[in-house]
Fold:
Amino acid sequence: MKHDFLMPETAAAYVRSGACDAALCAMYGASGEALAPYRERILHAVGGFCELYGEMPVRIFSVSGRTELGGNHTDHQHGRVLAGGISLDIIAVAAKTDDGIMRVKSEGYPEDRISADDLAVHADETGCSAALLRGIAARFAQRGMPAGGFCAYTVSDVLKGSGMSSSAAFEVMLGTIVNDFYADSQFSQSELAMIAQYAENVYFGKPCGLMDQMACALGGVTAIDFADPAQPLWEQVQLDLNAEGYALCIIDSGADHADLTDEYAAVPAEMKSVAAALGKTVLRETDEADFLAHLPELRKNCGDRAVLRAMHFYGDNARVLQQTSALKAGRFADFLSLVTESGRSSAFALQNISAAGSTKQQAVAVTLALCEKLLAGKGAFRVHGGGFAGTVQAFVPLDMIGEFRAQTERILGDGACHVLRIRRCGACALWEGDTGCC
Structure:
């Protein structure tokens, strides 16, 4: 059952009363007194909405960031990935309007404002959040569900440039609002992910894959197969890290993503050069045995780094299946071993730990070495996301988490180690259904 819109004061009272604690537990993995800061954050968002847009009936939405658990740089080759929603999210307080204007104010950023009557691609919006809003609305219109006006105020703790996909979470949030307000929630979470990808590809101008949007929309831990990117196959897998005695940490290496566009672009380009030499478009279409049979000429024509990156793809693509099987069978130790194998492959074969030619600045490599030292053979660690800069992922035993966090932050800086939970629910409205979460 879907609740009606609530006046902000009523919505705030609803949150304060604890009536939505079941939803907050599913979203953040906390309970009892630990929910207090999450309630306050929602109340802050309600206050921000009222200050900007005034008193009108609202609904409250949440979409999480994501973490990649397996399959590093495999999705753009139509490979497999294992990803999870996390306990960092975007909260949106939103209201329908009848003026045909879509307004979105993200805290700390200028308001985006577009007309539902103008859904053409605007070249001057390339790379801007307004393009995402216009692209989402356009895709809904193309699917026979034209959007109208609304205003939304969002707050986010999904870290930018961290591999947690703040942009994908924002896209899915826009789609979730439009789906609720103007499509009677007819589109599934996976369909919303594809709508978000369309907006990023066509309007924002970034040829991204679909992993980030799928993970943000679906929540939980999801194994996704992109053999057919237009119709990816996915299944959700159970993982209770707390029950296994582990915490998930994302560690900020402190490295800057600036001027790394060429490094990121070279990874899919080199993988595709190997695929092209084998008569295919992407590596998923090739046969590993055929690759090995033609290795001498591939080295000559594509270069050794391209060949090594192809080797990483074959290995990590297979590892996702192994990781998924391990989780299904309750073999968490095997899952951790596979995480470590993936990390070693990324460092040795994919080579996305340090920028080419960089000797003095190797922040991700230092962070990985630090994790190895602190964990002392326990848990697992790997580069997180695109690599070269940004973050490292670590699975840390709960009895080590205090010292692990203290030491990483002593060396890398306060706030560098983020202890996260896997989020159980996907993109949702805060009060929806008997459990309080969709």
About this structure: The chain has two domains: 8-238+423-429, 241-420. Residues 22 and 435 are 6 Å apart (CA to CA). Residues 433-438 have pLDDT under 50 and may be disordered.
